[in-house]
Each structure stands twice: as C-alpha cells, then as structure tokens.
Amino acid sequence: MSAYPRARSRIAEERGREMARAFARLMAALAFARGVLRVPFASRQQAEAHRTRLVTMMEPLLELAARDQQLLTTVGEAYGAALQALDARILSLKPIARVSTGESQPACLIAWQLYADTERAAELVRLNGARCPEFMPEQLLAQMPDDAPAGAGR
Question: If I label 102, which of 25, 54, 55, 94 is the partner at 20 to 30 A Cα–Cα?
C-alpha cells in the first residue's frame, strides 16, 4: 500500500481548512463593514481610523473573493457601500484639534472662547474625560469651531 493517497487526502484537507479560515475572515470583514456604519463617531479622526481599518481588512480579501464571480460581486458591493457611507460621514464630521490653554480653566470659559457658546462645555468635558468641569487640563481636545479654515485639523 502506498502513502500517496493518504498524503493526497491530507493536502485536500489542509486546503479545505485554509478555505474555511479565509471564508471566516471574509465573513468577519463583511460584519465589520456593516457594524462600522452603526458606530456613532465623535470626530473625523475616529471615523478615518475606522475607514483605514476597513480598507486594511478588506483589500486582501478581495483577492480571495475573486475566485468566484458571484462572491466577488457581493463583497465588492458591500465594501463599496461601506466606503461610500463612511466617506459621507467623514465629510459631515468636524475634526478634533489639540488646544493648549496655558493654565487650567473651567470648561464653560473654554467653550465660550472657542465657540462663543457655553452650552458646549459638556462636549469638552466628555471629549476629554474630565472629572471636574471647573478644572480642565491645560492640553485638551476640542472640536474645530465652525469658522475654522478649510482643511484645518487634519
């Protein structure tokens, strides 16, 4: 009896495992693409980071999907729709900038200086995870004001 048939079945078995792993990665990437569309992004930078992660995850899997035309069409449509929706959301979000105040100040004062709106103090507190709105850190994150120059904060 020859060892050839047994080796051949092991090769086929390993190929089957590789295909199953690749299919699992593909399904995870498609689930991630759908999930990204439900994330409430706080900033443009956060949305761009998710877009980069989606591209990094999907690009290698497109080659895998290229083996089957129907699968490639499905994956391509899902990937394209996710990128298009993410790009639209990225453009609708304002970027986050690092602000230096020089000393600890209350959130309402910083909100007034940046936005001329003390109601946005809670946004600053949330964005920076400050425990006490009366004493904000000297270096903090803030959403770019509406009158910021185009392309600022990228």
Answer: 94
Write a three-state SS string for 39-57: CCCCCHHHHHHHHHHHHHH
CB 59 within 8 A of CB 66: no
Residue 145, amino acid: P
Please name the amino acid found at residue 46. Q
pTM of the full predicted structure?
0.61
Tens of pLDDT, residue by residue over 1-27, are 445 556 778 888 888 888 788 778 888
Question: The dihedral of CA 92, 37, 125, 96: what is its sign?
Answer: negative
User: Cα separation of 80 and 33, whole Å?
Assistant: 10
Residue 57, token pair as written in the block = 């995850």
Dist CA 107 CA 99 (whole Å): 12
Beta bridge partners of 143: 96
How far, in Å, CA of 15 to CA of 9, rounded? 10
